[in-house]
Structure formats: structure tokens, C-alpha cells
Write a structure and sequence with these properties.
By secondary structure, the protein is of the alpha+beta class. The protein is built from nine helices and nine strands. The protein has one domain (10-215): Alpha-Beta Complex (Spore Coat Polysaccharide Biosynthesis Protein SpsA, Chain A), CATH 3.90.550.10. The two termini are 24 Å apart.
Length: 223
């Protein structure tokens, strides 16, 4: 577990997952299956658990991120704490593989010089058409976000924005409504699973991953 985390809870909406949580002794919250996005689901879970104050820091780790190193959790929490005037934080990672730049499942990001997230898209940005000096730097969103408890509830009350719906990216709800998002570049990599082919990458990673070996739940392989 990350050093600065007090509690880990799964926000679920399926009875099948509830049975697994009970069998494994995993803390969970059963949420409304009609929640439109992962962040809305986490917001409901935080509300049910009572994490709604300004000083509460709620970390959202997406369900398709099975290999998030603890330092990533610590990084995003500390990033938000560096900006007491902001309600949320979302780091980015450098893109070094051209295939990732072209992959619509990897959300590309643009950030400002003042650690603010400017835009998120599934397209390759910034454009390199006129990049004669090869100055373009490419980033992708790390699907781990930190929210202050009260701001997360505010997010859940906002209607989905048209850019959010067009891109299929929930954090655009904040950007389109002019809410600044703390953003910084993280060196630790995450490995999202978006398509079946990504599973092999994760299985190979887990064979040699120091964090998985250290924190593996006893009996996780039991059928």
C-alpha cells in the first residue's frame, strides 16, 4: 500500500464482484450501476464512506489500471497537496512509443508551464506538422486522480459536458467548466488494460514486478 494512504476500497456495481470481495475479504462499496463515469462512481463511494470534507483526499485508481506502483499514488496525493487552492490533480507520463501516440485508448494530454492540465484527447497532440526543430513533447494521462472530498462531490453535481461525451474522457468536465487541474510529469509508468492484447503485457510485467511480489494478496490465485 502507498505510504500516505489510510484506506483502500473498491467501488463496485455488480453482484459478481461483491461475491469476490466477500470471498477475499476486500473492503468495498456497492454503488449505483447507472453512474455515468468512473469518477461519478468514486464520488458516490466517497459520499457513502463520509469522505466529503475539504481535507479528505480521495484517490481514484481506474479499474483498468491493474499495475499502479505505490509511488504513483503517493505522487498524485502530494501533487494535490502542493496546490491547496485546487480541488483535483492528475499527473501525466511521457510517450516514447509512436504506437502509443496513435492508440485511441491512450489519452493524450497537454499541460501548461504552471502545472495545469490544458486538454485531454484521444488524438495525437500537439501537432508535429510544422515542428521543424522537433520540439514537440508528447504525454498521456495517468488514470490516477486525486480529489479533495468536497470538490469531488461538486464534480458529481455537474452535468456531463459535450467535450466529455465527444472524447469519452470524464476529466474534460472540469476543463470545459474552467476548473484548473494540477498536473505534473511522473516518471513511474502505469500499464492500462484497454484491449485483450494488453493482458499479455501485464502478465509479463507481474512476473518481475517488485511491487506485485511484495504486496500480492495471499491466496489470490485460489480458484
Amino acid at each position: 500500500m502507498a505510504a500516505n494512504s489510510d484506506k483502500v476500497v473498491l467501488a463496485i456495481c455488480e453482484n459478481q464482484l461483491e461475491d469476490v470481495c466477500k470471498k477475499k475479504g476486500i473492503d468495498y462499496v456497492l454503488t449505483d450501476p447507472e453512474q455515468p463515469t468512473a469518477i461519478d462512481r468514486v464520488g458516490e463511494a466517497a459520499r457513502l464512506l463520509g469522505y466529503t470534507d475539504h481535507d479528505d483526499i480521495v484517490i481514484n485508481v481506474q479499474g483498468d489500471e491493474p499495475a499502479v506502483p505505490p509511488p504513483v499514488i503517493e505522487f498524485v496525493s502530494e501533487l494535490l497537496l502542493r496546490h491547496p487552492d485546487l480541488g483535483c490533480a492528475n499527473p501525466v507520463e511521457r510517450i516514447t512509443d509512436k504506437l502509443e501516440l496513435e492508440n485511441p485508448h491512450r489519452i493524450k494530454a497537454v499541460l501548461s508551464n504552471n502545472e495545469r492540465l490544458i486538454y485531454l484527447t484521444r488524438q495525437a497532440i500537439p501537432s508535429s506538422t510544422f515542428d521543424i526543430d522537433k520540439e514537440a513533447t508528447f504525454f498521456r494521462q495517468t488514470c490516477v486522480m486525486a480529489f479533495r472530498g468536497d470538490f469531488l462531490q461538486q464534480f458529481c453535481l455537474m452535468p456531463q459536458s459535450n467535450l466529455e461525451l465527444v472524447e469519452g474522457i470524464d476529466m474534460l468536465r472540469l476543463i470545459q467548466n474552467d476548473y484548473p487541474i494540477a498536473c505534473s510529469i511522473i516518471d513511474d509508468a502505469t500499464y492500462p488494460v484497454d484491449v485483450p492484447d494488453d493482458i499479455q503485457t501485464i502478465e509479463t510485467l507481474f512476473e518481475n514486478d517488485q511491487w506485485f511480489a511484495k504486496y500480492r494478496v495471499s491466496g489470490a490465485d485460489d480458484k
